[in-house]
Amino acid sequence: MRICDLITYFFCFGTLLNGFSQEGMDQIKKDFIKTIQFSGLQQNNAFPLVALNEKILLKFDDLNGDEADYYYKISYYNHDWSPSTLFKNEFIDGFDNIRLDNYTTSFNTLQTYTHYQLELPNEDIQFKISGNYLLEVFTNANELAFSRRFCIYQSLSSVQVGIYRAQNMDRFNSHQSVHFAVTPYQQSFRNPDKNIKVVIIQNQQWDYIITGLKPQYFSGKTLEYSYDIPAQFEGGNEYFYFDTKDLRVTSPNINFIRRVDLYESYLNVDIPRMYSQYAYAPDINGKFEIRNIMGPGDPDTHADYSYINFSLAADYQLNGEEVFIYGNFNNYLLNDFNKMYYNPSLEVFEGVLLLKQGFYNYKYVSKKGNTLMKNSLSGSHSLTENDYLVLVYYRILGEQYDALIGVGNASSFELMN
User: Fold this and answer.
1) How confident is the model at residue 382 (pLDDT cuts 50, 70, 90)?
2) pLDDT tens-digit profile of 22-65?
């Protein structure tokens, strides 16, 4: 979806944001920090979205393998990720800036690493209110190692969501529209045009959201949002995948493996799909799962790291565009580590990533200046299976924060015309 379309036609209704508009929230500052996993205990989500008092689990590896000390801090934010005016004791009980004491050194791996885990809430810290939070992990020198967003909700309303084809014919085959309705469980919302804020997220990726929508009409206590263009997303395409659970043998999409200092896996050459017909292929919408069948033991500490070699066929260099390998393996960030470089002798873009054993989804995206073009290389289809989240925030009368009072989800696998 192009931002200019929304501004031209429906600026007053909704706004499409990309990751660069919220740059600095999710960061990886230390290149030896790998395989960050952050989700609820009962989920495998790209980011944690849990009910108040439910457990959140953070996992990550330090490739230095020296059992270094790390500390964590918690911050609170408004619905649009602007800083909140709340004091720390207004949103947490207890203390942060606590050292992570649950860590284990890898066992029987070529790449030595220290694996860390943190559960929240815990005996040191409990959360008092719903809304948007930021977890920051620091080194013992008080340098930021990485940060991750998470959301805590209270079920104070129901959110019904449906995914529809776009009704304008120029987008009928390429876009998906999100319709939803919000109903409070108790009294009606006060001044919902001002106090209700909604955020729609595709595939749990904060770099592709729609916000700023106002209720289209009221049905009793229910707020109806049945917009077409203001709530449209590009459907994109299904993700590529590979599986390195056994580094000794090739598997679908892995062409060749060799062992040097570490294992090296060479994927099949991928073809740009912007002009191809849509073909259904099950995926996990950009996420990854750590697994290892090369030996017994916990994959968290027994899975090894290997170099994954990517290649994307192209008979020309793109006009001023940069190409990146894109996926949840680094929280969809674009940096020098997942940037690809053109090899004119082979007419391919090439890139190498150091990844832990597991099942991975990935795609190729391009960026020109500060504009991310998620589907310029993969194409966009309305039949693509995507997951959508609708987050509903409410500024309760007399409060100084945006409570997350309802969550709705739907899949475009059940696409409606």
Assistant:
1) very high
2) 556 899 999 999 999 999 887 666 679 999 999 999 999 999 99
Q: Where among 110, 135, 153 does a domain terminate?
A: 153
Mean pLDDT of the residues in the chain: 91
φ, ψ at 21 (rounded to 5°): -75, -15
Query: pLDDT tens, 271-304?
Result: 999 989 999 999 999 999 999 998 888 999 999 9
Could you give the CA distance from residue 201 to residue 203 in angstroms, rounded to a whole number? Answer: 6
Torsion of CA 20, 25, 26, 30, to 10 degrees: 110
Which ranges of 260-362 would DSSP assign to H, the alpha helix? 299-302
Count how many residues are written for the chain: 417
178 inside domain: yes
**Domain edge (last residue) among 111, 132, 153:** 153
Give the burial string for 46-64 (b: 16+ CB within 10 Å, else e).
Answer: bbbbbebebebbbbbbbbe
Other CB atoms closer than 10 Å to residue 226's CB: what's the count? 14
CA-wise closest residue to 79 among 372, 296, 409, 399: 399
Measured distance CA(339)–CA(101) in Å, rounded: 34
Residue 203 corresponds to which amino acid?
A: N
Backbone angles phi, psi at 307, to 5 degrees: -85, 125
Beta pairing, strands 208-211 & 49-51: unpaired
pTM assigned to the model: 0.91
Q: How many CA atoms lie within 13 A of 411 on its CB side?
A: 8
The CATH number that applies at residue 287 is 2.60.40
State both tokens at 91.
């949103």
